[in-house]
Specification:
The protein contains seven helices and eight strands; from the N terminus they run αβββααααββαβββα. The protein is of the alpha/beta class. The structure holds pyridoxal-5'-phosphate. It is found in: Mitochondrion. Keywords: Aminotransferase, Pyridoxal phosphate, Transferase.
Length: 268
Amino acid sequence: MPPCDVTPETYKGRDYDETMRVKKKHISPTKVPAYSEPLLLTQGKMQWLWDHEGRRYLDMFAGIVTVSVGHCHPVVADGLKDQIDRLWHTTNLYLTPPMHEYAEKLTATLPDHLKVCFFTNSGSEANDLAMALSRQYTKSFDVISFRNAYHGGSPYSVGLTAHGTWKHNYPNGFGIHHSVNPDPYKGIWGGSKCRDSPIQADRECGCMGECEAGGKYLGQLREVLDYSVSGRPAALFAEPIQGVGGAVQFPKNFLKGAFDLVHNPLPS
Ligand SMILES: Cc1ncc(COP(=O)(O)O)c(C=O)c1O
């Protein structure tokens, strides 16, 4: 492993067996780890993690990409420390400076049509909100996402998610339709010329010259609009690269075509 100039603190907290005992007794069994003996992680710094015995790991997972600036990044940590002794929560009935400072800095990086923020606590809530806003704004009800998509686990957003493993026996997905997943690697169409990516699928391509898979998957989306949607959909949800479903990249021009289709869904 590459060298690292951080010396971790010696961990003096609860030991491994005791932590596992508490986990088994007091933590919901839905949090099943992928390992029979999961790591007990006690410290992190940028790309590095340490376990309770001081072993160092190069973290290529970053909390499922949520800590993408690194663990305990000094700029983020300083901002947190600065605020934590000054003011916590007030409700949004009042103004507080950091939210406005953040909104201005964030929107400065975004294009002109994305200049308004609505801060939420999680991806699921963001998608719940996006779905509610789109239905309010368009006065339409139908929403479309793709099979193999993951858009959250809250009772509302789980309807957008299209993996049986993440579905449970409660009602979800009212008004949501899942179109065929435009996956040039494992899907019904596509091959080595189709992905919108420098890295192509190692699968023989049946396309003659230009990629034809994108158009065929758009045809499936067209059919969802024709057969399942009443007029215009309120929204289409799509991951630019599907994550939970396995780093799936769509065919060339597919997302642009899907965007155009849902904005002009009525047959010409
Ligand atoms: C693409 C995508 N959208 C939404 C979510 C849901 O985010 P959260 O777990 O913060 O609710 C995830 C989580 O993995 C995700 O990968």
